[in-house]
From TrEMBL:
Keyword entries, A-Z: Signal
Name of the protein described by the UniProt record: Transporter
Molecular function terms from GO: efflux transmembrane transporter activity
A Pfam family matched in the record: OEP
Family statement: Belongs to the outer membrane factor (OMF) (TC 1.B.17) family.
Signal sequence region: 1-31
Keyword RNA-binding: no
Gene3D superfamilies, alphabetized: Outer membrane efflux proteins (OEP) (1.20.1600.10)
InterPro entries: MdtP/NodT-like, OMP_efflux
Length: 421
C-alpha cells in the first residue's frame, strides 16, 4: 500500500512550497491592507486557506486516489461451507459430511498491470490537484482584475460627472445672461444625467463581481477600499525561458499530458489483459461422520463465449488515442508557436494599455483643461469642452478594455502553461 504513494510525495512538497510562498507574500499584503489597500495576494491567500472550492478540489483528488487504491486491490478470497445429509432411506441417515472450499478469484491484470495503473493514477491525481488550484487562482485573478477595472472606471466617471455638473452650472448662468443658447445647456445637463446613470451601472457590475469573488475566495471587500493594480509583469521568468521550458518538456501542463498518456496506455493494457477470463484456484476439504477426510484442489474459470471485455477495450483505446495526441501536441513545434504567440499577444496588449495610460489619456486631459480654461476666460462656445470630454471618455473606456483583455490573456497563458506567470 505504501508503494503507490511514494512517488506522490515530491508533488505534494512542490504544492506545499507554492502555498507557503503565497502565504508569505500574503503576509506582506496584509500589511498593505491595514494601510487601506487590497492586493491580489490578499485574495489568493484567503482563497487557498478557506475557499470551499479548494475543498471541492480536495474531494475530487480523494476520488482519484480512491480509484488508485481500488484498481490496485485484488478481489477477496471466497470461502464456501456446507453440510451434506443423506437422503436415501436405505442408507445411513445419521452419517453427515462437512464440505469446505477456499478459492481466490484472480484476473490476468492482477499480475503487474493493476499496480502500474494504480501508481500512475496517484501521480496524476497530485498533478491534477496542482493544476486545479492554479485554475482557481486564475479565476480569482480575473475576478479581482474586473473589480480593479470597475474601480478605475468609477473614478473617471465621477470626475466626468463632477466636471459636467460644474460646466452645466456655468452654462446655465451664461444662458441666463444671453451669452449662450439653451441647446448647449441641455447638452451638458444630458451629459451629467448620462454619467450618473453609468455610475449606477458600474455599481451594479461591481456588486455582482464582488459576490463572484466572495464565492471564489471567501474574501469580502470593504466598500470603497482601493484595489492595487493586479500583477502584470513576468516575475522570475521571461519569454525566452518559457519557450526553453517548452522545448525541454518541463512545463507542468506537459507533465500532466505525459502522465495522462501513460495512464491511458496502461489502462488499455489492463483492459486487454482482462479480455482473458478470470479464474479461481480452489482447495477443498471434506470430512464424513465415519472419520474419513478428503482434500482436493481445483480451478474455476469463466468461459469467454460472449463477453471478452470488448466494450472496455474500445473505451480505453479511444482514451489512449486522445491522450497520446494531446501529449504529442504539447511537445510539438505547434504548441511552442501557440505559447509564443500567446505571450506576444499579452505583451502587445500591455504595451497598448500603457500607451493609453501614459500618452493618450494625459494629452486628452490636458486638452480638456485648456478648453475649460478658454471657456472660463470668456469663450463663446462650450462645444469643444463637450467634444474633448467625449474623446476622453472613449479613451478611458478603451484603456480599461485593453487592461481587462491583457489580464484575461495573462490568465489564459498561465493555464496554458500550467504555471502562474
Amino acid at each position: 500500500m505504501m508503494k503507490a504513494f511514494t512517488k506522490v510525495t515530491p508533488y505534494f512538497v512542490t504544492l506545499l512550497s507554492v502555498v507557503v510562498v503565497v502565504i508569505i507574500a500574503g503576509s506582506s499584503a496584509q500589511a498593505d491592507q491595514k494601510k487601506g489597500e487590497v492586493t491580489f495576494e490578499d485574495v489568493l491567500t484567503q482563497a487557498i486557506s478557506t475557499s470551499p472550492l479548494v475543498k471541492e478540489i480536495d474531494s475530487a483528488i480523494a476520488i482519484r486516489l480512491a480509484e488508485s487504491i481500488e484498481t490496485r486491490l485484488r478481489l477477496n478470497p471466497e470461502l464456501q461451507a456446507g453440510v451434506g445429509v443423506p437422503v436415501d432411506p436405505a442408507g445411513d441417515a445419521d452419517k453427515t459430511q462437512l464440505n469446505l472450499t477456499l478459492s481466490q478469484p484472480l484476473r490476468p491484470s492482477d499480475f503487474g498491470a493493476r499496480s502500474a495503473v494504480s501508481t500512475l493514477l496517484s501521480e496524476s491525481a497530485t498533478t491534477e490537484q496542482k493544476l486545479s488550484i492554479l485554475e482557481l487562482s486564475q479565476s480569482a485573478y480575473l475576478s479581482y482584475a474586473k473589480l480593479w477595472v470597475l474601480q478605475e472606471q468609477k473614478k473617471f466617471l465621477v470626475e466626468q460627472r463632477d466636471r459636467a455638473r460644474r460646466i452645466s452650472e456655468k452654462v446655465e448662468k451664461a444662458t441666463s445672461a444671453g451669452a449662450l443658447g439653451k441647446g448647449e445647456g441641455n447638452l451638458f445637463r444630458a451629459e451629467y444625467q448620462k454619467l450618473r446613470a453609468q455610475l449606477l451601472g458600474v455599481e451594479a457590475d461591481s456588486a455582482r463581481e464582488r459576490a463572484n469573488l466572495l464565492k471564489l475566495s471567501t474574501f469580502s471587500l470593504e466598500e470603497g477600499l482601493p484595489l492595487e493594480l493586479p500583477p502584470i509583469e513576468l516575475v522570475g521568468t521571461s519569454t525566452e525561458s518559457i519557450l526553453q521550458s517548452v522545448e525541454e518538456g518541463s512545463l507542468p501542463i506537459q507533465t500532466r499530458y505525459e502522465l495522462l498518456a501513460k495512464v491511458a496506455r496502461e489502462r488499455e493494457k489492463l483492459a486487454r489483459k482482462d479480455a482473458f477470463p478470470a479464474f479461481s484456484p480452489q482447495i477443498g476439504y471434506q470430512r464424513t461422520e465415519d472419520g474419513g477426510s478428503f482434500v482436493g484442489v481445483g480451478i474455476q474459470f469463466e468461459l469467454p463465449f460472449s463477453n471478452r471485455n470488448q466494450a472496455e477495450i474500445l473505451r480505453r483505446q479511444g482514451e489512449a488515442t486522445y491522450a497520446r495526441a494531446k501529449n504529442a501536441y504539447s511537445r510539438s513545434d505547434a504548441f511552442r508557436e501557440e505559447v509564443k504567440l500567446s505571450l506576444r499577444s499579452m505583451e502587445a496588449l500591455r504595451q497598448q494599455a500603457e500607451t493609453y495610460k501614459k500618452e493618450v489619456i494625459p494629452s486628452l486631459v490636458s486638452a480638456l483643461g485648456s478648453y475649460e480654461a478658454q471657456f472660463q476666460a470668456g469663450a463663446e462656445t462650450v462645444l469643444p469642452i463637450w467634444q474633448a470630454q467625449r474623446e476622453l471618455a472613449d479613451a478611458q473606456l478603451a484603456s480599461l478594455d485593453l487592461w481587462l483583455r491583457m489580464f484575461t490573456a495573462r490568465s489564459e497563458v498561465s493555464i496554458l502553461l500550467g504555471k502562474i506567470l
